[in-house]
């Protein structure tokens, strides 16, 4: 069972209870006060963790996909997956354009 606590509106998983010696991908959902990144588990985006920005790559942005590895509740490996981040951003861009076009098409009604 996971140990969870709430900070504001975010449920944070206590990494001490997780199997943490493996690499796993996360999406940067939000950056709080230039101190923490709220990360969504790519396999189950209902699971969120907060990670100090000091343990993450410099110039990290919301929407970046990051591969992380933890040991003793600390990040020991962090790398932005540039290829996957670009692919996801392109998917979002296409979806936004599709929605915009549908909105434009409906204006004639």
Q: What structural class is derived from the secondary structure elements?
A: alpha+beta
Task: Tell me the number of helical segments per DSSP (H or I, 4 or more residues long).
Answer: 1
> Ranges with pLDDT <50 over ≥5 residues?
1-12
The shape is elongated
Helix content: 10-25%
| SSE order | EEEEEEEH
Kindly estimate the percentage of residues that lie in beta strands according to DSSP.
Answer: 35-45%
- Intertermini distance: 53 Å
Spatial extent as radius of gyration: 17 Å
Mean pLDDT: 83
Main beta-sheet annotation: 5 strands, antiparallel
Number of strands: 7
Query: Strand order within the widest sheet?
Result: 5-4-3-6-7
Fold topology:
Layout: E1 4-7, E2 10-13, E3 23-32, E4 36-41, E5 48-52, E6 65-71, E7 74-80, H1 82-106
Antiparallel strand pairs: 1-2, 3-4, 3-6, 4-5, 6-7
């Amino acid at each position: 069972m996971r140990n969870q606590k709430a900070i504001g509106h975010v449920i944070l998983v206590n990494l001490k209870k997780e199997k943490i010696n493996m690499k796993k991908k996360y999406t940067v959902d939000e950056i709080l006060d230039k101190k923490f990144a709220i990360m969504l588990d790519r396999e189950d985006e209902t699971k969120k963790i907060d990670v100090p920005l000091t343990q993450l790559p410099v110039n990290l942005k919301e929407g970046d996909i990051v591969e992380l590895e933890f040991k003793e509740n600390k990040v020991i490996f962090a790398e932005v997956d540039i290829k996957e981040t670009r692919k996801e951003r392109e998917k979002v861009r296409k979806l936004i354009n599709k929605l915009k076009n549908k909105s434009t098409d409906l204006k004639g009604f």
